[in-house]
C-alpha cells in the first residue's frame, strides 16, 4: 500500500485590508460587537483579483516552498464555492496559468470543509492511480457572494487562498485517520448562496432568491460547536492517538467563540488550536490551508509533527484529517 505525505504549503491573500471600523461606514455595526461575537478584527477583500488569480498565487508559493516546478504536478484540485466562472473550472484555469501540462484538474465544492475533502480525495487518487504528486488549493473571493447590506453576514467573511502539495511516499502514510460527513437537509435551511435562475423558453422560475449568502447564524453556531469536538475525538480514536501528541488542531476559522467552545468541550487549552480568524475572517475553503501555511512560515510546525485538520460549513458538511508531516 502506497503512503502519501503533505510536503509543503503556500498562501496568498489580497493586500486590501478591511477593518471593522471600515464596516461601521457600510452597515449598522461596531468594532466592539464584531470582536466580542466573532474575534474578527480585519479581513482581506479583493480589489479586482478573482479566485483563479488568488489560487494561482498561492500555488506558486507552495511550489517555491517545496522547490518544485509546474511539470512535477500530476493532479490539481481546487476547493471553492466562489469560482470566477462555471466553466472552465478554477483548477483548469490554474493548470493553464502554471503550465502544469501533466496534471489532471478539477474543482470540488464542499464549502468550508472543501479543502479537507480535497486532501482526502487527492490522497485517495494518489494511492489508487499512477499520479505521484497533487496540488490541493482552497481559494475564495467570497466578497462577490456577500450581501454587503446584511450586517449579520458581511462582517464575517474574507477573500484568500492557500495551497498544499501531497506526494506519494515509500514511508508510512502521512494521512493517519480521516472522517467526512454531510447533512443536506440541514444545509437547506442554514447556509445558502449562489442560486441560479431557471429562465428558458420552456420554463421560468421566480427570481432566484439566494444569489447572495444567507445564513441562520445561531443554527450554524450550534452545529459547529457540536461537530468540531466530535471530529477531533473521532480522528484520535480511529488513530489510537492521544491529544497530548497533537502539535496543533487547525480548525476552520469561522468564529473565535466556536473554537473556544470546542476547546472547552475537549478539555484542552485554547492554544492547542491555531487561530488567525482575527486577521482574515472566514475565508471558507481557504481558511485551513492559509492557517497551515502560516504555521509553517512561522516555524511553529516541522516534519514529523502530528496535526489535526477539522472543518465544517455549508452543505452542511464537516470533515477532518489527522496528519503526520
Ligand atoms: N453588528 C451589530 N449587531 C449585529 C450584527 C452586527 N454585525 N449582526 C447581528 N447583530 C445583532 C442581531 O441583529 C441581534 O440583534 P437583536 O437581538 O436586536 O435581534 C443581535 O446582534 C444578536 O444576534 P445573534 O445572531 O443572536 O448573534 P450571535 O451571538 O449568535 O452571533 C454570529 C452571530 C456571529 C453570526 C454567530 O451566530 C456565528 O458565528 N454563527 C456561525 C457562523 C458561521 O460560522 N458561519 C460560517 C459557516 S462556514 C461556511 O460554509 C460559509
TrEMBL record:
EC nos: 2.3.1.180
Residue span of region ACP-binding: 253-257
N-terminal signal peptide: none
Enzyme class: transferase
Pfam families for this protein: ACP_syn_III, ACP_syn_III_C
Beta-ketoacyl-[acyl-carrier-protein] synthase III C-terminal domain sequence ranges: 236-324
Recorded catalytic activity of this chain's protein: 2-methylpropanoyl-CoA + malonyl-[ACP] + H(+) = 4-methyl-3-oxopentanoyl-[ACP] + CO2 + CoA; 3-methylbutanoyl-CoA + malonyl-[ACP] + H(+) = 5-methyl-3-oxohexanoyl-[ACP] + CO2 + CoA; (2S)-2-methylbutanoyl-CoA + malonyl-[ACP] + H(+) = (4S)-4-methyl-3-oxohexanoyl-[ACP] + CO2 + CoA; malonyl-[ACP] + acetyl-CoA + H(+) = 3-oxobutanoyl-[ACP] + CO2 + CoA
A single Gene Ontology CC term: cytoplasm
Biological process per Gene Ontology, one example term: fatty acid biosynthetic process
Positions of the catalytic residues: 112, 252, 282
Gene3D superfamilies: 3.40.47.10
One Gene Ontology term of the molecular function aspect: 3-oxoacyl-[acyl-carrier-protein] synthase activity
Pathway per the UniProt entry: Lipid metabolism; fatty acid biosynthesis
UniProt KW keywords: Acyltransferase, Cytoplasm, Fatty acid biosynthesis, Fatty acid metabolism, Lipid biosynthesis, Lipid metabolism, Multifunctional enzyme, Transferase
Residue span(s) of domain Beta-ketoacyl-[acyl-carrier-protein] synthase III N-terminal: 106-184
Compartment annotation: Cytoplasm
General function of this protein: Catalyzes the condensation reaction of fatty acid synthesis by the addition to an acyl acceptor of two carbons from malonyl-ACP. Catalyzes the first condensation reaction which initiates fatty acid synthesis and may therefore play a role in governing the total rate of fatty acid production. Possesses both acetoacetyl-ACP synthase and acetyl transacylase activities. Its substrate specificity determines the biosynthesis of branched-chain and/or straight-chain of fatty acids.
Protein family (similarity comment): Belongs to the thiolase-like superfamily. FabH family.
Family annotation (HAMAP family): FabH
Domain notes: The last Arg residue of the ACP-binding site is essential for the weak association between ACP/AcpP and FabH.
Oligomer and partners: Homodimer.
Official protein name in the record: Beta-ketoacyl-[acyl-carrier-protein] synthase III
Amino acid at each position: 500500500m502506497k503512503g502519501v505525505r503533505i510536503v509543503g504549503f503556500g498562501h496568498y491573500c489580497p493586500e486590501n485590508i478591511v477593518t471593522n471600523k471600515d464596516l461601521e461606514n457600510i452597515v449598522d455595526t461596531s468594532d466592539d460587537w464584531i470582536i466580542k461575537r466573532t474575534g474578527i478584527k480585519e479581513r482581506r477583500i479583493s480589489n479586482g483579483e478573482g479566485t483563479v488569480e488568488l489560487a494561482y498565487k498561492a500555488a506558486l508559493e507552495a511550489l517555491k516552498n517545496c522547490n518544485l516546478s509546474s511539470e512535477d504536478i500530476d493532479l490539481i484540485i481546487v476547493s471553492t464555492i466562489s469560482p470566477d466562472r462555471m466553466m472552465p473550472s478554477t483548477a483548469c484555469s490554474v493548470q493553464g496559468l502554471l503550465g502544469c501540462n501533466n496534471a489532471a484538474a478539477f474543482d470540488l465544492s464542499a464549502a468550508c470543509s472543501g479543502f479537507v475533502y480535497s486532501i482526502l480525495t487527492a490522497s485517495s487518487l494518489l494511492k489508487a492511480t499512477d499520479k505521484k504528486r497533487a496540488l490541493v488549493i482552497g481559494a475564495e473571493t467570497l466578497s462577490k457572494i456577500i450581501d454587503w447590506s446584511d450586517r449579520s453576514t458581511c462582517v464575517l467573511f474574507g477573500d484568500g487562498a492557500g495551497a498544499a502539495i501531497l506526494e506519494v511516499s515509500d514511508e508510512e502514510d502521512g494521512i493517519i485517520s480521516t472522517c467526512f460527513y454531510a447533512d443536506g437537509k440541514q444545509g437547506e435551511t442554514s447556509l445558502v448562496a449562489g442560486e441560479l435562475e431557471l429562465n428558458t423558453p420552456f420554463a421560468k422560475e421566480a427570481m432566484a432568491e439566494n444569489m447572495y449568502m444567507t445564513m441562520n447564524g445561531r443554527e450554524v453556531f450550534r452545529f459547529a460547536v457540536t461537530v468540531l469536538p466530535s471530529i477531533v475525538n473521532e480522528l484520535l480514536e480511529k488513530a489510537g492517538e492521544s491529544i497530548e501528541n497533537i502539535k496543533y488542531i487547525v480548525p476552520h476559522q469561522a468564529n473565535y467563540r466556536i473554537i473556544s467552545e470546542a476547546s472547552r468541550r475537549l478539555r484542552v487549552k485554547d492554544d492547542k488550536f491555531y487561530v488567525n480568524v482575527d486577521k482574515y475572517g472566514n475565508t471558507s475553503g481557504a481558511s485551513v490551508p492559509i492557517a497551515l501555511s502560516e504555521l509553517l512560515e512561522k516555524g511553529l510546525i516541522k516534519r514529523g509533527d502530528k496535526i489535526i485538520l477539522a472543518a465544517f460549513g455549508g452543505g452542511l458538511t464537516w470533515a477532518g484529517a489527522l496528519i503526520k508531516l
